[in-house]
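Format notes (please read before filing issues)

Several people have asked whether sequences and structure tokens are stored in separate files. They are not. Every record keeps both together, in the order shown below: the sequence lines, then the token lines. Line labels are part of the format and must not be stripped during preprocessing.
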Amino acid sequence: MKLGLRRGVVRLARPDPGWRDVALTEVTRVKQSLGHLAVAVEHVGSTAVPDLLCKPIIDLAIGTPGPPDEATYRAALEPLRYAFHTDSGAQGGLVFVQGDADVSLFHIHVVAYGTAQWTAYLDFRDRLRTDASARLAYEEIKIALAAEFPQDRVAYTDGKDQFIHGLLSRV
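Then the structure lines:
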């Protein structure tokens, strides 16, 4: 199982069934560490969707009891080797990354439980898990964007936005 990706690089990998177990182990570890600071922790993103080419980075969403405070979640996640990356606000909440200086293994998105962003993470994942035509269309977009932006992860991610928003508007 190959997990991890050099920062800034876009490389798609064939899905690995072992990622599910790694994600479940990390979900358990994060839940235990956060306690009451996490209403729920979910494996989201493309590694949570069987049969989908993806960047080999596991994404987790943490649903918090209220608006997440950066200092509180830094203090809770840094002992688990997560570094604060950015505050994406309503577009993704607080983002933490685990890995080394060059390679990302896990991304955590901390958002208030039950908000539109929380629901979007779960709805998008679940739609791709159950809708083969949506999964194939998304994969085709990802392949094209990875070819166009192999060294620009921001452009790659931005390029997926229209598809994601369109799919979610039909949920």
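For reference, the curators noted about this record: The mean pLDDT is 93. The beta strands are 5-6, 40-44, 58-64, 82-87, 94-99, 103-112.
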